[in-house]
Amino acid sequence: MNLKRIKTFMMVLDHKSFSVVANLLKISQPAVSKQIKTLEAELGINLLHRETVEPTEAGKVVYQKGKKFLYDWDVLVEECRRLQGQLTGVIRIGASSVPGTYIVPHLLRKFLNVHPGVDIQLSIHESGDIPVLLKDGSLDVGFVGSEPAGSDIISHVVKKDHFILIGPKDSEEISDLSLIKGLPFIFRSERSGTWQGVEKTLNSFGISTQDLRCIAKVKTTEAVISMVEADLGYSVVSSIAATQAMQQNRIKVIKTLPYERKFFLSYLHSKKIHPAIVSLVALSNLED
């Protein structure tokens, strides 16, 4: 039995698309189809209704058994890694823009001081994409600004922060937050953990982001700060992301918002004994 074929079959059922899975695995769509056909030949039964991408009765059984099979295999692999003593190999880490810029680098420096034999692959994503990448095996660990949903994902708080309303350096402070409805505002992507937190914060003041005058929507907090610094508008960002710009008097804090946001280290339950992840969790607990 080929683990890769079982995983590919399960991914096709999860995504309901051969083309999406081909893109995620970086192989051709015919190669995805071939893997599933080979799995069906090994088992001697059809597993998928191709027209609807729905499982047959046998497919449902293979999906459930495969989930346990892959979990047990992951546990075995991680236990063998633990017994090796000195950590080696690759750990794939994904982070949304704020933790990827302001939290993860310092943590990885501490990690590599302890485990110099481990290779790090770090990539930046929207918060909303990271749970998908964890589940399909593209990432081992994710750092995000909003806690991923799902009983198969474990999350630890690694940093607490708060939101601030920022404006150009010559801005006046705002006592009544409802006044921001008339200001030019810079938005983040809807899949950004920061922006999801901003929406919740503003909602608590009776303000919807639909009430704001959006002049631009950007992908990173750094781009937001640059646009605010250029006197193009106002925005709400994490305090941790704006610290340097505030110290350099490039922007002004208009109002500190009474909303605590959290950053999370997340991974699949099946990887809870992965030695590198265990070490990352322990080191993150030592963070200030």
Describe the structure in your own words.
- The protein is α/β, with parallel strands linked by helices and 288 residues long.
- The chain folds into three domains: 3-82, Arc Repressor Mutant, subunit A; 86-159 and 263-284, Periplasmic binding protein-like II (D-Maltodextrin-Binding Protein, domain 2, 3-Layer(aba) Sandwich), CATH 3.40.190.10; 161-260, D-Maltodextrin-Binding Protein, domain 2.
- It is 44% helix and 25% strand.
- The protein is built from eleven helices and ten strands.
- The protein has a six-stranded mixed sheet with strand order 4-3-5-10-6-9. The chain has a two-stranded antiparallel sheet with strand order 1-2.
- The chain starts with a helix and ends with a helix.
- 34% of the residues are buried.
- The model has no long low-confidence stretch (mean pLDDT 88).
List the helices and strands and how they pair.
Layout: H1 3-15, H2 18-25, H3 29-43, E1 48-49, E2 54-55, H4 57-83, E3 89-95, H5 97-102, H6 104-114, E4 118-124, H7 130-135, E5 141-144, E6 153-168, E7 184-188, H8 193-204, E8 213-218, H9 221-229, E9 235-238, H10 239-247, E10 251-268, H11 275-284
Parallel strand pairs: 3-4, 3-5, 7-8
Antiparallel strand pairs: 1-2, 5-10, 6-9, 6-10
